[in-house]
Amino acid sequence: QGPVCTNLGLKPGQRLTVKGKIAPNAKSFVMNLGKDVTLLGLHFNPRFDAHGDVNTIVCNSKKVEEWGAEHRETVFPFQKGGTAEITFVVNQNDVTVHLPGHQFTFPNRLNLSVFDYFDTQGDFTLQSLSWE
């Protein structure tokens, strides 16, 4: 478990940029964005080799203990031992995830008007976090 941020106050039109280092022997890492730890609007989980997925980004949402349907992205711009810069842009109805050379959107299934919570877990060391 890495740092946990609360009271971010991210609203539509705002962005959160995350920079960090991926462990040399990474299996997977997670970034959660939501209202709090029980209401996750975006569970972002790049998997090098975990839960039967290889080089796949799995995204989901979570309401209390209930997970939604998994969304998979096969573009995988991450490298073990490398650095990563990921930007999450909050829109009215979804979140746009900007990766090196690729972007995709994930729907705001919980209809969150503000994203207050962010955390990282797994094989990722957070170096900087900025939002605007």
**What is the CATH first-level class name?**
Mainly Beta
Total helical segments: 0
* Span of the ends, CA to CA: 24 Å
Shape: globular
User: Can you tell me the residue ranges where pLDDT is under 50 for at least 5 consecutive residues?
Assistant: none
How much of the sequence is in beta strands? over 45%
Count of distinct structural domains:
1
Largest sheet: 7 strands, antiparallel
CATH topology: Jelly Rolls
Tell how many strands the DSSP assignment holds. 12
Mean pLDDT: 96
Helicity, in percent?
under 10%
Which structural class fits the helix and strand makeup? mainly beta
**Any idea what the radius of gyration is?**
13 Å
In the CATH hierarchy, the architecture is Sandwich
Order of helices and strands: EEEEEEEEEEEE
Q: Concise description?
A:
Helices cover 0% and strands 61% of the residues. The chain is mainly β and 132 residues long. The protein has one domain: Sandwich (Jelly Rolls), CATH 2.60.120.200.
Polypeptide structure, described:
The chain is mostly beta strands and 132 residues long. It has one domain: Jelly Rolls. The protein contains no helices and 12 strands. Strands 1, 3, 4, 5, 6, 7 and 11 form a 7-stranded antiparallel beta sheet that branches. Strands 10-9-8-2-12 form a 5-stranded antiparallel beta sheet, with no helix packed on it. Strand 4 and strand 5 form a beta hairpin. The radius of gyration is 13 Å and the shape is globular. The model has no long low-confidence stretch (mean pLDDT 96).
